[in-house]
Each structure stands twice: as structure tokens, then as C-alpha cells.
Amino acid sequence: MRFDIITLFPELIEPYLSVGVVRRAFAGAVQVRLWPLRDFADGHYRRVDDRPFGGGPGMVMLAEPLYRCWQAIRLDRGLPACRPAGAAVDVPTVLFSPAGERLSHDVVARYAQPATPGAILLCGRYEGVDQRFVDACVDAQISLGDFVLSGGEIAAVALLDAVARLQPGVLGDQASAEQDSFNPGVDGLLDCPHYTRPEVWQGPVGPMAVPPVLLSGHHAQIEAWRRAQRVQATARWRPDVLARARAEGRLRPADEHALREAGYNSGL
After folding, report:
1. What is the pTM of this model?
2. Is 165 in the active site?
3. Active site residue: 10, 36, 52, 98, which one?
4. pLDDT tens digit string along 144-200?
5. Which residues pair with 5 in a beta bridge?
């Protein structure tokens, strides 16, 4: 799959592509190409923004440089410069915006499928993007949450990282991704607590031991403990996620028992 990123600041994204475990994906399964927007602007100053009609604070990204860049990307992909009206989406154009769909595991999984074409990712800046370009060329909008960033680059990196983690072979052990929070492999619940050496840690509140079940070597008991911890953590920190799992029939009788034991209201 391939992701083309329209950005005013490619230098914010470039270093990320070559560090950490996910760099394996960007060297293979996930192609990333950066498109500096000023390369498609006119004039000595390569202007990409102007004052908003109607007045108000801030600046608005111009439609024309965005359109030229968007066309160049499509041509580079071997597609028509402009998608015919009414034609199916061949490669989606995604704008990172507070108005967008909240980025979630389900959204990431859609873009992470190996057979998909990836996307053209638009990193907005200033007060926003000329709405005419959005109406004509943008197919989807994604938000990191109910807050505003200074630009879409951070959101683009978040999407790329999450997509890369789901590619086979990137994490070394595929079970790592399958046991992540929100993954269907754990029924969409939060992850359980993790522990490593030493067995007893002398911390600021005194000696703290690893839960004995994790040292037992009894795999069935360990898995049961981890499942109970996932359910209880989800009830504590993300009751909305737990409610959705219950409504979709993904909680087991043992899960409800674990919730009752921990003092949480059970759905049974």
C-alpha cells in the first residue's frame, strides 16, 4: 500500500520513517511519499494561504496549490489527474480535521489491509482548507480527538504508525499486535498489566511483587488472570468500551464474574 502526504513541513515526518520498529514497514509493505505543498505554489514566496473571505482571524490554505499537488500525486500513481464525476473512489483523499471520524482501531484496520491502495493524506494548517477543495477532492476526514493541533502532521504520523504495526512481520511477533488494546483479538478491550524483572521491586512505596500467578508457569491460569485484568481495566478506564463489548456479545460469563469480584456492576 502507499500513502502520499501533502504537507508544508515534510521535515516533521521524515525522521519518523527511519526509526523504531515500524521502520521495517516503511522499508517494505508501506510506501510513504512526501509532497511539499510549496513546490506547487506560485510566485517568489510560494504562497499557499490567504486571508479568509468575510474576515476573521488566521489564514486559509489556498485551493489551487492543493489541487495541483493532488493531481500530480494521482498522475504519479498512474491514475487520471482528475477522477471522473460519479466514479468510484480509486484512492481516498483524507483530510485530518476536528470534524472527522475519530481515529480508532477499526479505522486503522481499514487502511491497513494489504490489498488497499492506501490514501492521499492532507495535513491542514492555519485556520483550515478552502472548503471548495474539500468538497471537490476530499473523500474522508479523520480526527485524533476533540482538540485542535497546529497541523495535521502529528495525526498523519499517528495513522502511519498504527497502520505499520498491523503489517505482518513488523513487530517480530504477530501476537503483539493481536493483543494490543482495542484489537479484536482481545475482544476490543484494553490490554492487561505487564511485569518484568525483578520479581520484587523496591519502589517508593516499599517492596512490590509480581502477581504470583505470572510466576506459576500455569498457562491457562495466566491467561484467565490476564483476561480478568483486561475486563477490569476496561471497566475502570473506558466504561464506554466495556459497554460496547457487552452490547456486541463479546463478554463471557467469566468476565462478568471478574467484574463482580472487583466491585463493578455486571450486565448479568
Report:
1. 0.92
2. yes
3. 98
4. 999 999 999 999 999 999 999 999 888 866 677 888 999 999 999 999 999 999 999
5. 34, 121
